[in-house]
Fold this sequence. Notes:
Shape: globular
Radius of gyration: 17 Å
CATH architecture: Alpha-Beta Barrel
Number of domains: 1
Strand content: 15-25%
Largest sheet: 8 strands, parallel, barrel
Number of strands: 8
CATH class: Alpha Beta
Bound molecules: 2-phosphoglycolic acid
Number of helices: 11
Strand order of the largest sheet: 1-2-3-4-5-6-7-8
Oligomer: single chain
Amino acid sequence: MRTPFVVGNWKLNKTIAEALALVTELKNQLGAVKGVAVGVAPPFTALSAVAKRLEGSSIVTCAQNCFWEPSGAFTGEISAPLIADAGGTWAIVGHSERRQFFGDTNESVGKKAKAALAGGLGVIVCVGEQLAERDSNRTLEVVDAQLAGGLAGVAANATSRLVIAYEPVWAIGTGRTATPGQAQEVHAHIRKRLADQYGAQVADTIRIQYGGSVKPSNAEALMAEKDIDGALVGGASLEAADFVAIVKAARPG
Ligand code: PGA
């Protein structure tokens, strides 16, 4: 059985003080939650403070991005060793906003995923189609190319630290969620591709999160689908009450 994994992606939000207030509440309210793994992805400026505050809890601290070189003349970048040094244990790579605004490609996402794993982190590789791609029936083809690039350097022996997040771009921050059936269809396809690459047994162990306007009101129906193993939550992760409700909805039935 796969343990669902729910991660709050705070994006470009929260000062250090705000971040600490939120994780303190999460630590208090989620301390006793069983059967679901939980993470938060603060902005880099709050990563170290958040990781320190979460010491002694099972909530993990994730970075929102991870450059592929460990160090050097790369102004503005942050690497896996620095994330680990700050107390982070996971990195999100290939988020659609990185692809859309900051030039991430399937190839660079693959380099980032490989580097995150090499640096000892777990990695969440994000995939998902744009609205025009869905409307022209290209969803699975787009996701295939994103998986091929993103997982190019991910060896089978690292898959225990690999998570895929399926986030249809048209559902991110729009209030328009994929229906559970639409999401499940793509999740099942992703698992088939994982089986092609790693074998069915390994594919069965890899968690596939859904992301895109996940809220307390729709989380339970999404999480009930057989290949949906948790959520990557943006807007609704900025308030403790909503995020806690989503985490609780992801507990196995
Ligand atoms: P959203 O964002 O929940 O605000 O739609 C999800 C994400 O971008 O990971």
